[in-house]
Structures are given as C-alpha cells and as structure tokens.
UniProtKB/TrEMBL annotation, chains A, B:
Lineage per the UniProt record: Eukaryota, Metazoa, Ecdysozoa, Arthropoda, Hexapoda
Stored NCBIfam families: dph5
Domain Tetrapyrrole methylase: residue ranges: 1-240
Source organism of this protein record: Zootermopsis nevadensis (Dampwood termite)
Name by which UniProt lists this protein: diphthine methyl ester synthase
Catalytic activity: 2-[(3S)-amino-3-carboxypropyl]-L-histidyl-[translation elongation factor 2] + 4 S-adenosyl-L-methionine = diphthine methyl ester-[translation elongation factor 2] + 4 S-adenosyl-L-homocysteine + 3 H(+)
Pathway: Protein modification; peptidyl-diphthamide biosynthesis
GO BP field: methylation; protein histidyl modification to diphthamide
PANTHER family, A to Z: DIPHTHINE METHYL ESTER SYNTHASE (PTHR10882:SF0), DIPHTHINE SYNTHASE (PTHR10882)
Entry function: S-adenosyl-L-methionine-dependent methyltransferase that catalyzes four methylations of the modified target histidine residue in translation elongation factor 2 (EF-2), to form an intermediate called diphthine methyl ester. The four successive methylation reactions represent the second step of diphthamide biosynthesis.
C-alpha cells in the first residue's frame, strides 16, 4: 500500500499517532522537502521515528514516481509531506499514478496553514479564495493574485496569501547543463510580500479609493504557526513592510470585513489595543 | 496552562503525538461533543488515552467557561475538539476568556474538513468561501448561503458546504421550562442538502440560466473523511438527492471551474468515467 502522510505544521510531534504507526512499520519512507519546509531537520525526524528516511526532492517527486512507488503493491511505502497531503498538486498526481498501477493508496490527513491560520482569530468561514504570492524576477513580475484579493475584499472576505518557497531551484545558467546547480533556498517573508503588494498598487494609476487594499489596510502576519516560536502581528500593510517576524515559514492575511469578536481577538497581536481598533475602523 | 487540542477527523489515532502527550499528563481533560462529532465514542477514547474524560456539552462550553478554566493558571487543563481548534467561534471565545483571566493558552492544531476535503481531488486553492447549510424548520428556512455559492461559481470557485449538526438541541416546548428536554441528534446528509439546494432554485422564479447551479451541476459528496469507511461520490446535484453515503458526517461540494487534473481524479468517484466527463462538460 502507498501512504501519503501529512506531518502537520512541521515539528516532529505534529505527526498523528496513526501516521507514526505507519512510519515505524513501512518498508521505505520518503520525506518530501520541496513543496514546503520542516521546522526540524531530517535527522531530528529520524531520531524521533527510530528509522531512516529517504529525501524526496523536486526531481524525485515530479519525475521519479516509478521509483517511489516501486514494490508498493506488495509492501508498505510512505511519503511524508509537511501540512496536509492534498496541499500540493504534485501529491494528487502521485496518487493518480499509484492508482493507475493498481496500488492502493491511503491518505493520513493533518493540519495545514489553510486551517491553522485560524490561530490569529479571523474566522475560517470568512476567508475567500487563497492566493499565492510568487517571488518576482526582473523579467517576470506576475500580479494576477491582485484581482483575487480584490474579489475577496469586495465580498468582505479575508485573503490568505501563501508566500513563495524556493527550494532546489536550478540556476538559470545551469538549466541547459547536464549537471544542475541550485540556488540557495528562499522563503518569502511577510515584509517582502507586503512590499510587493504595495508595489502593485503604486503601479496601477487609478483613483486610490478603487484599490483592493491600501497601505492602511489591516493585515495579519503569521510565522511558524503551531511551533513554540509562533509569532502573529496585526498592523497596517505599510507597517508590515517593515516588520520582522523571524525565520520562515511566513503567511500574510489581508483582512476583509471584521466581526467584533475578530477585532477583539486581534488586539492581542497589535502594538496596542487602541491602535488596532483604529486600524480596524479605517481599514 | 489551558490547551485546546484538535482531534482531527475523529478516529482515536488521529490525535497528534504532541496532543496525546498533553492528554496523558493533564489534570483534567474535557471532550467537546457539540460543534462536531467523533466517529468513535468517549469510551474508546478513554481506553486509547488510558484516562477518563469529562464531557463538555453545549451548556458547559457556552456557559461554563469558568468551570472549564478552573485552576488552569497552576495546572494543565485540556479541551479536546474534533477537527481543528479554530473551526468554531465558541473556541475562539474560550481562548479570549482564558487570556482575560491571565491563563496561558496553547493550541494543538489538526486536520479539519476544510483541508481534508482535498481528498476528492478538487484543489484547495480553487475553493471560495465555505458555507453552512442549516436544517430548515417550518417557520425558518434561511437561504443566504445561496448568494455565497453564486459568488463562488461566478468566479469559477468550488464551494464547500458544511452540513448542519444538531446535538443537544432543546425541544421548543422545553425552552421555557426549568428542566430542558433535548431533541435526538441529527446530522444532515448530502441527500438532504441536495434536496434543500434544489428546493431553493425551484422557489426562485428567474430564468434558469441565471441560477448559481442547477440539477445538472457537478457535485461531490464526501462522508466520514479520513476513516476506513470514507465514501466519495461525484455526480449531478439531482442525483445527489437520491444518494446514500451512509452514517455521518457528510459534506457537499458544489464544483466550480474544473482543471483537467481535477476531472481525471474525480472519475474514480463516479459511476463511470464517461459519465463524469459528460457531467463535467455540461456542468
């Protein structure tokens, strides 16, 4: 059988008891390190599980399905992924390939930022479409997520912005070479995301009032959700640009219409209660 | 310290290792049985944890915060909730009360239907606002969720419909009495939800093409997600009305714009591949 096991928010103990039992007994266990990141390293996980893990990087997950699934019709093979198994399209694709090969699949669910973001007090049912904010390069600066944020804001909904993760990205120069070279890993911070969002509206020469958001819009930055070093900050988008929430992973929420209970909850993540109330009023 | 621990999708082994360690050591552990349901009973959990649990029903959670939080500034008290702790407003409120009383809170996240619904192959990033479909009574038949589904569909987004759960609802007759009497628990099925959704459009006398959905719209019903008896069915809304996915909990998804990979994944949950392709084409 082929198992895809969600590791939750990234600490070793975030795995479910069900997941841990499978990890202990499986023939081979792959650790996916491409669509998200762990807050602990591979070694810490191996020690916690009492077994060795095989790293599944981007190349292996996207092109080596055959290798991962080998013998899975007679033995138990597991793939560990941060968050919930269906957070990334690659995993859906892997399940399809397994089923085509007649291999039974079982998914072990876990928390992901999509529901854990509720930790900031914004109601999960008041979120609209989730968007992804990619790193810009000199020649590629997409901003299609702007219209999605605008659509959510028009309907009074909050927007969860997932921030870019670049792990094992080949350098442009090595793309045509046999031996690929990789860029150092990058994780977009709430500060970088805020800067990019502000850059987008400064480029759009319309009346300021028509914008999906402005520098004074209430935002919430979350970092390392679920870990002991979790940080949450509620402030304006302009202030978020200068904020430092420490190491990855970060996510940014652009608030929509706020319920009084949401405002009350957010005050604890603001410089002062009065300030948060002021931002919420004018946001 | 006060812990709110997510139990995930409802089986005993769905708790995280982190959560289980806290449950084993805590002074008192409450089991919330009001905003969702377990697929196992209290006794099975007690046996699995090796300790006794205190049932926290609607009255206790909403009015007995003081009782739950007693001694939490010096001892570890835990509240277990199905899914993720921030799935329901009641829990946010409980955290606020704890903080007001100077009690440190820690949240142990877990899977909830909001991310586990990805098991049907519809991409989580293509979902719009989540809606709740309540049971109708003779005098109270709200349909405000219709406009939210319409908004999602217009933007090509899928809609996750959470279906009503009625646990420990006082009977109308006993509302004014000292000793409350309760209705038997009810859990809305995908069939009941589909019937109600169809009833709404039959009541709206507009041109059929303007409707947010019709009887031929592609829907996905999911039941007991994450358990060994999980069931998924992809069919038209009209067919869903006659479907039986067995015991609770059920959730219903109204599909928006479909990506080819989503269609391919859904075929396994349909009567036949050809039929699913046909529904997806005209949906």
């Amino acid at each position: 059988m082929f198992f895809i096991i969600g590791l939750g928010l990234g600490e070793a103990e975030d795995i479910t008891v069900k997941g841990l039992e499978i990890v202990k007994k499986a023939e081979r266990v792959y650790l996916e390190v491409y669509t998200s990141i762990l807050t602990v390293g591979k070694e810490a996980l191996e020690q916690f599980y009492g077994r060795n893990l095989i790293i599944a990087d981007r190349d292996l997950v996207e092109q080596g399905a055959h290798e991962i699934l080998q013998d899975a019709n007679s033995k138990d093979i597991a793939l560990l992924v941060v968050g919930d198994p269906f957070g990334a399209t690659t995993h859906t694709d892997l399940v399809l390939r397994a089923r085509e090969a007649g291999i039974t699949c079982k998914i072990i669910h876990n928390a992901s930022i999509l529901n854990a973001v509720g930790c900031c007090g914004l109601q999960l049912y008041s979120f609209g479409e989730t968007v992804s904010i990619p790193y810009w390069s000199e020649s590629w600066q997409p901003d299609s997520f702007y219209d999605k944020i605008a659509g959510n804001r028009r309907r009074g909904l909050h927007t969860l912005c997932l921030l870019d993760i670049r792990v094992k990205e080949p350098t442009l120069e090595s793309l045509t070479k046999k031996r690929k070279e990789y860029q150092p890993p990058r994780f977009m911070s709430v500060s970088e995301a805020a800067g990019q969002l502000l850059e987008i509206i400064s480029r759009r020469h319309r009346d300021h009032k028509e914008f999906a958001y402005t520098g004074t819009t209430l935002c919430v930055g979350v970092a390392r959700v679920g870990s002991d070093t979790q940080q949450i900050l509620a402030c304006t988008l302009q202030e978020m640009k200068d904020a430092d929430l420490g190491p990855p992973l970060h996510s940014l929420i652009i608030a929509g219409h706020l319920h009084p209970l949401e405002v009350e909850y957010l005050t604890q993540f603001s410089e002062s209660k009065e300030k948060l109330l002021q931002i919420a009023k004018t946001s």
